[in-house]
Amino acid sequence: MTQLRTYQDTLDYIYSFIDPARKPAATPEAAALNLTRMDALLAAIGDPQAGMRAVVVAGTKGKGSTAAMLEAMLRASGRRVGLFTSPHLNSYRERIQVNRELISQGELIALAARLRPTIEAFDRGLYGRPTTFDIGLLLALRHFAEHMVDIAVLEVGLGGRFDAVNVVTPLVSAISSISYDHMSILGPTLADIAWNKAGIIKPGVPVVTVPQLPEASAMVAAEAAALGAPLWLADPASLLSASNGGSQPYPVAPRPALRGLFQVENARLALGIAVLLRKAGLDLPDAALTAGLDGVRWPGRFELVPASPRVLIDGAHNGDSAQKLAAAITAGVPHDRLVLILGTSRDKDIAGMAAALVPLAAAVVLTRSGHPRSMDLDRMVAEVGHHLRGPLVVTPDVRTALDAARGLAGRHDPIAITGSLFVAAAARAALGLAVSD
After folding, report:
1. What interhelical angle do 262-279 and 63-76 show, nearest 10?
2. Could you tell me the fold of the domain covering 303-430?
3. Is 272 helix (H, G, I), strand (E, B) or coil?
4. Alpha helix (H) ranges present in 48-131?
5. Among 121, 355, 360, 414, which residue's CB has the most CB atoms within a 10 Å radius?
6. Residue 86 in contact with residue 165, Cβ under 8 Å?
7. Which part of the chain has CATH 3.90.190.20?
8. Cβ-proximal residues to 369 (8 Å cutoff; 6+ apart), any chain
């Protein structure tokens, strides 16, 4: 067994658990093995999550932003907060943070080296081979335990019901906006997707969600009722109890530092979680909630870079998120001419994204992030063509796309770059905003 001596050694080891040939589980019983495996992995390293207070956040759109807002509010109350999110933008270390300090290279190397013998001794014949996500969650929970966090905010990776994060029983479960994404894994209908998201609901554990489409709302309500979990709705007017019909106002105004109309909904969800944590006994003063919302940061989500011309970076990656991004641009980014840079992944709804965003643009630049799953440019050209109002430029990478967009934009014309978090990450790197590794 070679030793993990460098940061690159450690990343290579973590990524060695990626299996390109791995197929989605064919049955719920097979998918449930993900949870059995994660439980066994955690038991093998001493169950670091045992006794750890936590919040679990699932959803299609907004779960990362909601987690970031909640973390900021908890931290502003004086607590030591662990934050686990995915995917990362530019550094793997972004996934594991304590009080918004990224795990250091040295800590990650040492932690992976200590856990490696246990991981290598793990019974893969009984439980299956761990995934890269499993290993990341294992490292995060061990890191949080060793740093004695007061509470951990854990973002679900994909779905919810069979996601490795779902082995943790939280104080509160939260479900952000549900829409169509990852249908090949979560199912073809909105009800299928919502069933997976609602799988994070635990018996008796309060759950809060946002207004959903009827199929999704019905599925979340049914799951909560079946498990006796108090269900709350972060409605625009107030926090509503679906259990007894009661309501209460939000303790502070849902006005986050994060830009974009859709972030107000995420702020209401984060405040709803905070209210339920108060009911669970956590002291969260109103001043801390306000300070958290005022100070929250979450790169790559409606991130407006004050360059000339301005560059708006957003990781919108499905039809619903593209519609919300389009509404946010119309309401919050004054412009005469918008230049759009668009790139996405092969499994994404390029037709829906193009329909929502391309009509806003005076010119469009298509590109690829460099990720192996990037969508072919020819396919994107075919989808955006009938929505165009101006020139179309096709470029091989994000840096070239930014150069092309600058050539198309006037000094006061904003450039919006979107379509995936991989594209957002590449844009931040090209603009010198990436985390230094």
Report:
1. 50
2. Protein-Tyrosine Phosphatase; Chain A (3.90.190)
3. helix
4. 63-76, 105-120, 124-127
5. 414
6. no
7. 303-430
8. 343, 397, 398, 420, 422, 423, 425, 426
Percent of the chain with pLDDT over 70: 100
Angular region, 201: left φ>0, alpha ψ -120 to 50, beta rest: beta
H/E stretch holding 356 reads helix 350-357
pLDDT value, residue 308: 87
Domain 7-295 has CATH 3.40.50.2000: no
Sole residue written with tokens 């073809």 = 188
Q: What are the residue ranges of helices labelled H in 123-200?
A: 124-127, 132-146, 183-186, 190-197
Say if CB 170 and CB 205 are below 8 A apart: yes
The two tokens of residue 360 are 């806003």
User: Does the predicted model carry a pTM greater than 0.85?
Assistant: yes
Q: What three-state secondary structure class fits 233?
A: strand
Query: Within the chain, what is the greatest distance between any pair of CA atoms?
Result: 61
pLDDT given for residue 223 in this prediction? 98
Residue 241, CA distances (Å) to 73, 210, 376 in order: 22, 12, 46
Distance set, CA 254 to CA 260, 263, 268, 368, 399 (Å): 12, 9, 6, 35, 36
Residue 5 one-letter amino acid: R
Which whole-number Å values give the CA distances from 92 to 2, 65, 88, 132, 161, in the listed order?
A: 21, 18, 6, 12, 25
Residue 306's CB: how many other CB atoms inside 10 A? 6
**pLDDT(185) > 90:** no
The DSSP output letter for 207 is E
Q: Give residue 1's pLDDT.
A: 67
Q: Give the SS3 label for residue 345.
A: strand
pLDDT tens, 94-149? 999 999 999 999 999 999 999 999 999 999 999 999 999 999 999 999 999 999 99
Question: Which of 409, 424, 420 lies closest to 307, judged by CA?
Answer: 409
CATH 3.40.1190.10 location in the chain? 7-295
